[in-house]
Amino acid sequence: MDPVLLQPGQHLVFIGDSITDCGRRDDPEGLGQGYVRKIAASLGSGFRVTNRGISGDRVRDLEARWTADVLDLQPDVLTLFVGINDVWRVFDSGAAFDLDSVTEGYRRLVESVSCPVVLIEPFVLPVPPDRLIWRPVLDPLIAFVRGFESSCRVVRLDALMNGAAGDAPALLAHDGVHPTDAGHELIKDAWLGLVQP
Predict the structure, then answer these.
(1) Does the pTM exceed 0.85?
(2) Active site residues per annotation
(3) Which of 70, 86, 94, 160 is the most buried (most CB within 10 A)?
């Protein structure tokens, strides 16, 4: 798909988990210290940027707050970055993972808005190496997100992160999940390849 072409004054809403949150509630500007702030800085002051990331959120958590945190804000462009906590909870607390339930919820989120949508697929790096056991759960979710490429812009972040990581994946995500500053820079650059002022 062609990039989204922004118009001055448009409202950009970002929603997701801790990777989007990135300390936004302790930030006077409410942007956090991650990729959302980097995107806002790159775009300049001509756009309204709202960060609605909340650490720990899963797809069902976003559904519960979707009206207040997305629909009521009437975004001109929406960015959705969620899914890794749905996978992580399987391995850290034994939570059940129902791919159909997660993907149906995800689809409802995407289909509820009429503005252009950017989807950032979840990713994991092998830090520590046993993160690789997540792949059988994560990979079908990534494939599902990529299935929206005919109607949404999709950042293939798992491929980008793993491709850029080389022999030092911790330089991009110290725990395989949460990006470092360099990881957030990569996300910003990928997003700006799909959305242009």
Answers:
(1) yes
(2) 18, 175, 178
(3) 86
